[in-house]
UniProtKB/TrEMBL annotation:
Name of the protein in its database record: TetR/AcrR family transcriptional regulator, transcriptional repressor for nem operon
Gene3D superfamilies (alphabetical): Tetracycline Repressor, domain 2 (1.10.357.10)
Species of origin: Nonomuraea wenchangensis
Upper lineage: Bacteria, Bacillati, Actinomycetota, Actinomycetes, Streptosporangiales
Length: 88
């Protein structure tokens, strides 16, 4: 398990962390939430589930100044839309 302080050591910077998350464990969790929207509050209140929005934070912190971050966020939105369509 990575501690908060070691995230940048493992991924280099926030951009690389966000890019890695696109292909990691976030997708199965997002599919689960989209497939079971009635349980969204249960998932959101689970203390074992990380809180916050990596895409929202990246948009606020990096997108205004970083073209690669803009591309990562844009791809994330396309992916989220595809997952929504898949679970509809």
């Amino acid at each position: 398990m990575l501690e908060r302080g070691s995230l940048y050591g493992a991924f280099g910077d926030k951009r690389q962390l966000v890019a890695a998350l696109q292909d990691g464990p976030v997708l199965p969790a997002l599919r689960e939430v989209l497939a079971n929207p009635a349980r969204a509050q249960e998932y959101a209140s689970d203390a074992g589930v990380p809180q916050g929005c990596m895409i929202g934070n990246t948009t606020a912190e990096l997108v205004p100044y970083d073209a690669e971050a803009r591309e990562i966020v844009a791809r994330s939105h396309v992916l989220i839309d595809a997952l929504r369509a898949e679970s509809a």
